[in-house]
Amino acid sequence: MDIDTMKDVQQEQDTRNIQIDRVGVSGVSYPIIALDHENRTQSTIASVSMSVMLPHEYRGTHMSRFIETLEEYHGRVSPSNLEAITRRLCEKLNASESSVCFMFPYYFRKRAPVSGIESFSKCDITLTASCEAGKSFDMIIGLGLNVQTLCPCSREISRYGAHNQRALVSLSVRSKGLFWFEEMITMIEDSASAPLHTLLKREDEKYITEHAYENPRFVEDVLRELAVKLDNEDRVLWYRVKVTSYESIHNHDAFAEIERDKR
Known about the structure:
Number of helices: 6
Number of domains: 2
Helix content: 10-25%
CATH class of the largest domain: Alpha Beta
Largest sheet: 9 strands, antiparallel
CATH superfamily of the largest domain: Urate Oxidase
Strand content: 35-45%
Radius of gyration: 23 Å
Number of strands: 9
CATH topology of the largest domain: Urate Oxidase
CATH architecture of the largest domain: Roll
Low-confidence stretches: none
């Protein structure tokens, strides 16, 4: 059968009169380039979701065109051109609204506090972008990072030490201007009892253990410390923070969450 005579089922008219808010593809594994404060760029692999709004009169969308759009930006997919990608989706799929989401690991070098030995650490990045054809564009930068928290209550009432654990800080921001991942990482780590490291020597372990003991933090403390920093950062227009403590002496987790619009 000649391609010109093939029936385009997706373009058939639908009579159920129901608009679909988002339809598209997800779980697409794709190489991208992330902006790196130290090395300018960093290659990584993202899990990509892409979608458009489907008007009520169309039966379906053309799924292949999502991947075709990614391929148009092959070798140039980066956070800096997400607006171009979302607008191209609207154009290519004749849609009034589109959105993309890139989730990927981001690696950065960290120096141990005493020995100075270096190793890679990792955080998880989520970039969510959306646009209306010919109108507004919106992007949220999300970063998830593990830190250490030491319980102030345990420290106060215990004769020996205090319980401590890993905690996950999930930070999302809307910003004006460039806001580096590394800046977000520093804000988060400075709000916790202590940062985490991949490689430590004994002198580093001693320092971090004592540093955490001198900086006890509830999940509420970590959240408030970070919120103060974000409130004082003029580039941040909106933020959402969630801190989850994976409790070491309780059979449950503890969390605190906040969302603020500074505009």
